[in-house]
Specification:
By secondary structure, the protein is α/β, with parallel strands linked by helices. The protein is built from three helices and nine strands, in the order βαβαβββαββββ. The strands form two sheets. A six-stranded mixed β-sheet has the order 4-3-2-5-6-7. It has a three-stranded antiparallel β-sheet with strand order 1-9-8, with helices on one face. A hairpin with a 2-residue loop joins strand 3 and strand 4. The longest helix is centred in the first third of the chain and has 18 residues. Bound molecules: inosinic acid and magnesium ion.
Length: 205
């Protein structure tokens, strides 16, 4: 039987003051043997996301970009990034599956969830967690460009330049990382580790 969970609500008569301070460490999770060396620290992530937000704010002044977030990994990055873009902007989501092995994409991509928004004449910014071979992004760019947007740019938190197989350069890049499997800050391995507050290398036994 599932454990009973009591209600979590403010005591009667007391106002609930929200003071959200996100953890920089998760002590129990971080014991996990799958978490290897740190690739990008929390402070570096925060600083870089602010810089990317400022660059987008500058470049898109006077426009209302539509951020297209590629599920699921980029959700974490998107939510931090969007809150430092000082412009009216919108968000929409796409889910794609890339045929291939767990760590190697094939370039054959299937759309699992398409955009709700119509993007003709819109300034679209694809927000990706990581560009590895670039095959997924290449497909997405072709697909979205065929819908008549005013512009399409890519903002990727991470790239692995040594793995890139296609001729494609995201306009905005957070960090270049070496050829290693990354986890944390949205990135998963078998759906785990997305809640790790920083980016680490997967430590394989
Ligand atoms: P690509 O098509 O080879 O560029 O792969 C892109 C997708 O594969 C990303 O959007 C991720 O979902 C996944 N991926 C690639 N490399 C990594 C990694 O190091 N960690 C976690 N996911 C990755
Ligand atoms: Mg992804």
């Amino acid at each position: 039987m599932a454990a009973e969970v009591g209600p979590l609500r403010p005591e009667a008569g007391r106002s609930l003051t929200l003071s959200v301070r996100l953890p920089r460490t998760l002590p129990a999770l971080m014991q996990d043997a799958g978490i290897g060396r740190t690739l990008v620290e929390v402070d570096e992530l925060q600083q870089r996301v602010r810089e990317l937000g400022a660059a987008i704010t500058r470049d898109y002044a006077g426009r209302e970009p539509l951020l297209v977030c590629v599920l699921k990994g980029a959700v974490f990055f998107l939510s931090d990034l969007m809150r430092v873009i000082d412009l009216p902007c919108e968000v929409d989501f796409m889910a794609v599956a890339s045929y291939g092995s767990a760590t190697q994409s094939s370039g054959v991509v299937r759309i699992l969830k398409d955009l709700d928004a119509v993007i003709d004449n819109r300034d679209v910014i694809i927000v990706e967690d990581i560009v590895d071979s670039g095959l997924t992004l290449q497909y997405l760019l072709r697909n979205l460009n065929a819908r008549g947007p005013r512009s399409v740019a890519v903002c990727a938190l991470l790239t692995k330049p040594s793995r890139l197989e296609v001729d494609l350069e995201p306009r905005y890049v957070g960090f270049e990382i070496p050829d290693t499997f990354a986890i944390g800050y949205g990135l998963d391995h078998d759906e785990r580790y997305r809640n790790l507050p920083y980016v680490a290398a997967l430590h394989e036994e």
